[in-house]
Amino acid sequence: MKHLFYILFFFLFIISCSSSTKKNYNYYYNLVKDQHEIVELVSNGGNSRILISPFHQGRILTSTYNNVEGISNGWINEEGLTDLNKSIGGEERLWIGPLGSQFSFYFQQIEPIHDDNWKVPSTMESEPYTLIYKDENHVELSKSMNLTNFVGTEFNLEVHRKISILRQEIIQKNLNIKLKNSTKHVAFETNHKLTNLDTTAWVKEKGLLGLWSAGMYPGDDSVVIIPLKNDGKKPDILTYLATIDSTRFIVKKNTVLFKVDGKYRSKIGIPPEFAPNIYGCYSKSKNKLTIVEYKKENDLWYSNSFVSIQEEPFQGEAIPIYNNSENFYELESNAPLKILSHGETTSHWHRVYHFSDSSEKLNKISQSLLHIDLNDIKLNAN
C-alpha cells in the first residue's frame, strides 16, 4: 500500500508539472514580458486576447479565445527571443514584397539568387518599430526603412501599422454571420500604409514594392480551404519548393485543399484572377476554424515565390500559403506591386478570425463563408 501511495504521488506530481509548463497563451505572455515591452489587447470579457511586441517589428505574437489559460494560436520560436539572428515567428507580421525574382529583397545582392542565400533584411527581422499610439482596442506603430533589391535598386519608405482587436459585433458585421453563444472567438485586423520617401517615382523596370501580411501557426491536422474564383483549376495554382502530391494538395469542386502539418516544406500561390478575398483553415482535432479576409484589389501585378531570375516577375499570387518542415505553417496575403511617386501611398489590410465550437456549428460558418461542408475536407490517403 505504501508503494502504491508513492507511485500515485509521483504520477500526480508529473501531471502537475506538465500542467504548469503547458505552452498556452499565458506561458508566452510571461515569457515575452520578462524580456521586452508588450502590448495586450483584450475583448469579450477577457476571453479574447492578442499579444503584440513593438520590439519584434510590431508583430502579433499570438492570440487566444479562452482567456489567459487558453491555447496559443500563433507559432513562436523561443530561440528568437534571445538570438536576433533567428526569427521569433508570430501570428502576424508585415514584410515587404517581392519575395522571389531579381527584384526580391530577401537575397540582398548575394549571388547566385538561391535558397541557400536567403537573408531577411534587418529592418524586417531584428529592428523594432516605434509605438506611437495605443488604447484598449488598437495600437499604431511606424518604421522608416531603407531596402535594396537583388539588382541593386534602393528604396526609402515609411510604413504605418495599425493593429485592432475585433469585438463580436464587428466580426458579425464584417463576415455577415451570427455567432452562437457557445462559439469561442478571437479576431484582429492589421491595417498598413506604405509611403514612398524617395524624391523620384518607383519604376517597374527597376522593381516595385508591395505590402505582405503573413502569420505563423503550429503544424497540426489543419487543412487550408480556398474557394477559387473564375472556375479555377489545379493547373492554375502556382506551386513551389517541392512536389506536392494528392495527399497534400487537391482541388475539389473549385476549392483548394492544402494540408499544413508543418512536416513537409512546400508552398502554393493563388494568382489574383482566381483568388477570393476570403479563405479558411480547419483543424478537426482542435475544433477550430480560422478565417482569413484581406483587401483584394483588381490590380494584376503581384510578386511570386519563385527563387530565380524571371522573365515575368510581376505574375504572382494574391494568396501565398507556406507549409514548413519545422512544425509551422503560414497563412498570408499579398497586396499588388505599385508604382508610387514621391509622397504617394499604398495600403493593405488583413483580418484573421479564429472560431472554436462543435463541428456542427463550425460547419455552418464554413458553409456560409467558404461554401464547403467540413465533412468534405478530405485529402487522398497514402
Automatic annotation (TrEMBL):
This is Lipoprotein.
